[in-house]
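pls ignore typos typing on phone
magnesium ion + seq
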Amino acid sequence: MDAPLIRLRGVNREYPSGEGVLRVLKDIDLDIGQGEFVAVMGASGSGKSTLMNILGCLDRPTSGSYLLDGREVARLGAGELAALRREVFGFIFQRYHLLSEMTALGNVEVPAIYRGLPTQARRARARELLDRLGLGDRLGHRPGQLSGGQQQRVSIARALVNDARVILADEPTGALDSRSGDEVLAILERLNAEGRTVVIVTHDPKVAARARRVVEIADGRIIADRRTEAPPAAPALAAPDSARAAVPVLGRLAEALRMAVLAMRAHKLRSFLTMLGIIIGIASVVSVVALGEGSRQRVLQNIAGLGTNTLQVFPGRDFGDMRSGRVTTLVTADGAALARQPHVASVSPTVSSSQTLRYGATEASAQISGVGEQYFDVAGVRLTQGRGFDESDVTAMSQNVVIDDNTRNSLFGDGPALGQVFMAGKVPLRVIGVAEVQSRGPGGSTSLTVYAPYTTVQARYLGSTSVSGLTLRVADEVDMALAEQMVTELLTQRHGSKDFFIVNNDQIRQTITATTQTLTLLIAAIAVISLLVGGIGVMNIMLVSVTERIGEIGLRMAVGARRGDIRAQFLIEAVLVCVIGGAAGILAALGFGLAFERLSSDFTLVYSPLSMLAALASSSAIGLVFGYLPAVNAAKLDPVNALAKG
Ligand code: ADP
Ligand code: MG
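k done
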């Protein structure tokens, strides 16, 4: 005769207890053949459940041999044990162990998910089983909405969904009234008649009487083994062929995602509070980066008017030099000399003088800016009416001027400006063009500016050829730093000492960019800290959640979940919480930006898609990193312990 389906030899199970060990099972020898119906009886605490757990590969013997189909189970790894629980055994527990968040149908599907059965096939199978057990109209009910007997029938359907050959029922009727209990027993008898091996633990002699073999245990030893009937000629129920089917990893991941969504929905407030840390962290990172980018662009825009290939030369040692007003060595001739250099494209001297403007009865004080004809191009001043002055205006010291919009408003109001003549000090000036207001500098937009040829300002107001500045446009292709050096050398030579300073717009731009980059880095560092705090919050809650759902984890393992499945479930849950939190954080930041723009126009927030992508990526990374420990903790749990604590 072949080896029986199950063969235990000298099996011991010991638990450490105080100094010594507690021997719960002692030298158990037991053979169970294919297709038998065995009742295990014994007093409470005699070791029945321990034996069942070992039979069902939920637990391992401390010593001894367990051959299943001739294979030594003691030598199998955790993954192979999970496969046996998934494909060979179907467990039925006294307390049903249904997942309360899922419907009857969903509960029955769980073992099939871990086996990798496609959704349609698995749903059809679960429905058919529930139908056969008289629950066809309760598919969408949750365990809380079902009676004890109905719940136990759901758990029987779950045990059968992978076509288990061996049904292990640990006091399945213990919590049921006698009528429901009878129903359950009838179902088990039917399953046995189909060729399935059934092992049932019971206290009830009436139940035992319906089995064909009764094994009695007392204090961890088998004290009696009676057959009331000869074992049936094993109708060999073949292992289901789809058991070897390849398991689609993606499908299992999708299921893990569904589980995570279910778990989050079941604890909405807690999930939200967990997310809050991530939401705040991501929202602040994204808005601060947007604010930094906004101010950077604004500053750059302000200096962009001057172009980045211009150098400005001013008298004195630096801005704010008290003597610069008296330094008169920077003269028009310097400009002419510079203009002859090959690396200089054009030179526009600037001089200025404050004068009182008069037109009819209107008076206003204004700044007369003496500039060259190229100034409008070089400085990016846009004309809205008329024209700028040309070379002949400059050489002829003409009294043609361009006024800015503020001046036009003050002097002429809504009337025509072009061609009008007004007085500036004692000099009559004629308007040939109107320019946009240059808003550079604080309060710059409210002062009045009149642009006149610099020669005119020098001759009529200043009476000298010294200038208040030279604006140079450097030839294309010439390196700015090099040009600056050459200008410095030339002017130092002409003046005999370095009594001027040069402002390099390109350098300013670089400085601003570098400064904002440093600031952004600094803020990013703070943001990373806040995200870390958020991540630790996630880890904390996930650890609590693992403890809270320990029974669920045990049950999932009992029906065949691999360690990887459990790990994936909790990891995905953590990542999901973080990604949703991250997305909410981005939305919050966008809303914040909108509100900010409404309230004040002084700041602009410029959002870059890159920073948002980075925010999403980092929130998933946080989920992975901080979800890892809880997930590993969950996967490390011992199925029997987890089930007992659940
Ligand atoms: P039964 O199912 O027959 O009522 P069990 O198999 O559950 O009994 O338990 C048998 C004995 O083993 C009991 O005395 C129990 O206290 C002990 N026991 C069960 N599980 C553990 C464990 N994880 N650690 C220590 N002792 C245990
Ligand atoms: Mg028990």
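Residues 15, 22, 24, 42, 44-50 surround adenosine-5'-diphosphate (ligand 1) (CB under 6 Å). Residues 259-300+511-645 form one domain. more later
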